[in-house]
Amino acid sequence: MGRKKEQNVPIAIFARAAPPESLLAAIVESSEDAISSTDLAGIVTSWNEAAHRIFGYTAEEMVGQSLLRIVPREGRAKMEGILWRLGAGEQIERFETTRLRKDGQTVEVSVTISPVKDASGRVVGAAKIAHDITERKKMERQLIRSEKLAATGRMAATVAHEINNPLESVLNFVYLARRTTPSHEKAHGYLLSAESELDRVSQIIRRVLGYYSETGRRDEVFLHEILAEALAVYQAQLHAGGISVDCRYEDRRRIAVHWNEFAQIFSTILADSIQILPRGGSLNLAVEDSRTAEQEGIQVVVRLRAPGVGREAFDRAFAPLAAIQGGISSSIGLSLARELLEKRGAQVILNTAATSEVSDAHICVFVPFA
To answer: pTM value?
Structure first.
């Protein structure tokens, strides 16, 4: 029996073929992330549609231009250093940074940078993928702010509780001292004033303890009446500090609010204003009917004009435990006040501006009608 002839059986060899350039281009153009490339001098050589959407510049506007066009001034040295390190063969870790849009707004991005090499393996450029993380970072900051507010709220309530008992004792001693002092003596008047002030402090503490739990019937009031009453409490401090005050009350409709809540909110704003403003500063208060595209309400505007005070003092006014004018401000109250107002559907906006001589701040509180 003859030997069976061997047959040559073809062996299938599977190789991963490189995708055609048209497919790569389609992937780049359809990406949700901004994808661009530059040479080692930072000159843009490619720019996809997502980069146009995120940064506002078209490919025609960016190709041939420096990538530094979208880099904030304070980040340009870092960007140049990254390109130098890439050319030297170093690996670049993914990082988060900010970039400038065409309209001047900033956008927060997570950036991945990879080297582009020529046929000989030499690094000739960089490919960059920028993922827009603006919304994520915004949510992170909101979460941090909420945690700070919760912590400061608990701390404020704890402090108020600890102060309340000795304060009641002091109030009783002052009351007894006044009752045993003849009414014609000066000391009697001083004790009467002290008793009044201690009683006011006691009311504030009770409000802090119930800051988040104000329930029940709301009163129909003119909002300017609450503000005017709060302002009257601080007249002596304003006069002593040389701070001028101008008031304009033009609200003509009553609004349903908890009086105690808004008395504390306005007191907190006024107290912080006095702390921020130097001698010669001015405080303008305006209350007026207001209407937005969606709703009607009352708008309260507190304007502070502060010669010699840096804008940063205003910018951090709503930050818990902010240091203002070298000390700890009562902005625990401002933070809580803002949160409480927003829980009630109100809107709080802080706008600041500054020149070389004076800083301005506008605290706008819009309270909608129920």
So the answer is: 0.47
